[in-house]
Amino acid sequence: MKVPEIGQYVGSLIGQCLGDAIGFPVEGQPHEVCKEYVEEIIAEGPGLRARPGYIFGQYSDDSQLARELIISCITLRGFNPEDYARRIADIFSSGKVVGGGSATWEAAIRLSQGSPWHEAGTPSPSAGNGSAMRAGPVGLMFFDHAESLVRAAHDQSIITHKDIRCSVGSAAIAGAVALALVSRPFSRPEFVREISRVVATIDPSAEIAFSSLINWIDLEPIDAAQALVGSGYAFGDWNNWQGLTPFVTGTVLWSLYSFLHSPESYLETIATAVGIGGDVDTTAAMAGAISGAYLGIDKLPGELIPHLTDEGTWRLDELTRLSTELYNLKVVQRKLSAYA
Ligand SMILES: [Mg+2]
């Protein structure tokens, strides 16, 4: 197995935060608006478009919670769902969460009121992408141990989302980041087969949905989006397409497609992830984590990453330091245990 490089760890966290920050100003907007906006950013830089009340570069709950997961893991030298649940509750009650989803909010309140981590999650049929969007770091932590990866992806998911489809989405993103770290040379069919195998360990019926990616990866984004909606894995009417809802399966599949369609270009991946419209801070955060893990920080857009901010904190320098610390602990010192 190829040993991951430090730039891939930094690239994954920064790639997640930047994708999130690019998508955040148009979160929930229709396809036409998102497509025009992301093409403008790529051609002309950040410009003046930002979410009201924020500057360009602000990232949201997706990346804030991924960052908290890394901090928890570094502090305890391993993954501990109880500690991570406490951090989720704390960041929500601090008022610092940016754009938090309703299922996570509800779970955070239950955690603050004393519910244990394995009971607080919002039950089915709620199946949003709130746990998949923060799962990238699980791939950085357990790229070399499939069993721990799946277990941690599932456990970190149920803290806020009890539906099994959310655990599947979390494992798919964690598995994709893990594979991206070690996949050179890169085989797209093998990548799809491996992700399908990972999700099948949680829910055998999920294998069909994830295997179907193989039929879409060579389609252009507009045709792939139509195929995704036609498959029933994303909600909506293609004849009146507004964009992806936060439903976990559709958004995770789109993020994987966005990466697999253009694995050698971070910005093309982000353009695809955002261009579909709808919950695009999350599609771009997930696709960005995978793309950054594959390409490394040096292939991310150097003119955009210095804008990253979380209301004046956790900018590029701090995020780089955090992901470097995780790399040192995991790859250099080998001091990261599965469960702490
Ligand atoms: Mg968000």
Largest sheet: 2 strands, parallel
The name of the CATH architecture is Orthogonal Bundle
Task: Classify the fold: give the CATH topology.
Answer: ADP-ribosylglycohydrolase fold
Quantity of strands, as a count:
2
In one word, what is the shape? globular
Task: Indicate the multimeric state.
Answer: single chain
Bound molecules: magnesium ion
How would you summarize what this structure contains?
The chain has 340 residues and is mostly helical. It is built from 15 helices and 2 strands.
Helix/strand layout:
Elements (H helix, E strand, L loop, with lengths): L5 H18 L7 H14 L16 H16 L1 E2 L1 H13 L8 H11 L23 H6 L4 H13 L5 H19 L5 H13 L5 H6 L9 H11 L16 H14 L4 H10 L4 H16 L20 H17 L4 E3 L1
Parallel strand pairs: 1-2
Helix pairs in contact: 1-3, 1-14, 1-15, 2-13, 3-4, 3-15, 4-5, 7-8, 8-9, 8-12, 8-14, 11-12, 12-13, 12-14, 13-14
Bound molecules: magnesium ion.
Structural account:
This protein has 340 residues and is mainly alpha-helical. It has one domain: Orthogonal Bundle (ADP-ribosylglycohydrolase fold), CATH 1.10.4080. Helices cover 58% and strands 1% of the residues. It has helices at 6-23, 31-44, 61-76, 81-93, 102-112, 136-141, 146-158, 164-182, 188-200, 206-211, 221-231, 248-261, 266-275, 280-295, 316-332, and strands spanning 78-79, 337-339. It has a two-stranded parallel sheet. Helix 8 (164-182) packs parallel to helix 14 (280-295) and helix 13 (266-275) packs antiparallel against helix 14. The longest helix is centred in the middle third of the chain and has 19 residues, at 164-182. It is globular, with a radius of gyration of 18 Å. The model has no long low-confidence stretch (mean pLDDT 96). Bound molecules: magnesium ion.
